[in-house]
Design brief:
Blueprint (H helix, E strand, L loop, with lengths): L8 H9 L11 H4 L2 E7 L2 E6 L9 H14 L4 E6 L12 H9 L2 E2 L31 E5 L7 E6 L5 E5 L3
Parallel strand pairs: 2-3, 4-7
Antiparallel strand pairs: 1-2, 5-6, 6-7
């Protein structure tokens, strides 16, 4: 089947956008804002993604899933491209994605304002992150690194539960 007789671009984008992130299911590529475009170039369907960071170990899996979903929809020639500029930011996570993070027990990233995010190797005071379980703000960062590099481990002193916080970048 040639691309021209297959699904429309909007259908292909919807299919690609529903691919789940392997580290944060049930969040989709659309929820995370990493699906940049789906277009046709001749008989080739080209999907452009921006990884959350350049060394993200999930990128190859995501690309394989995208190719499988689109070839399964009848596209014979699929190419996945990575766009590293502009760099991905947590501001691209949709409201639905933030809602799903909370449902997973992960505090969504706080808004990033004022330019680059400072990097510190030592302990530093952090703003209170609302607990995704009880909503309390009596929380403390336990470790700058959580279950993945993009998350920090926190504890809520109101409900006494630990939780991940998706770091803002």
């Amino acid at each position: 089947m040639s691309v021209s007789s297959g699904p429309s671009l909007s259908e292909l984008r919807a299919l690609a956008g529903e691919v789940c992130d392997p580290e944060l299911p049930p969040l989709t590529l659309s929820d995370l804002g990493i699906l940049r475009s789906v277009e046709r170039r001749g008989d080739t369907v080209v999907v452009t993604v921006t990884p959350t960071y350049s060394g993200c170990p999930a990128v190859e899996y995501i690309e394989a899933e995208l190719e499988a979903v689109l070839t399964g929809a009848g596209c014979e020639d699929v190419r996945i491209e990575r766009a590293l500029s502009p760099t991905w930011t947590t501001e691209w996570i949709t409201a639905e994605g933030r809602r799903k993070l909370i449902e997973l027990g992960i505090a969504p990233p706080q808004p990033v304002t004022g330019g680059p995010v400072p990097v510190s190797l030592g302990r530093r005071p952090t703003a209170a992150v609302p607990c995704p379980r009880c909503g309390g703000t009596n929380t403390v960062e336990i470790s700058r690194f959580g279950s993945t590099a993009c998350k920090a481990l926190h504890r809520c002193d109101d409900c006494r539960e630990p939780f991940d916080h998706f770091k803002g970048i």
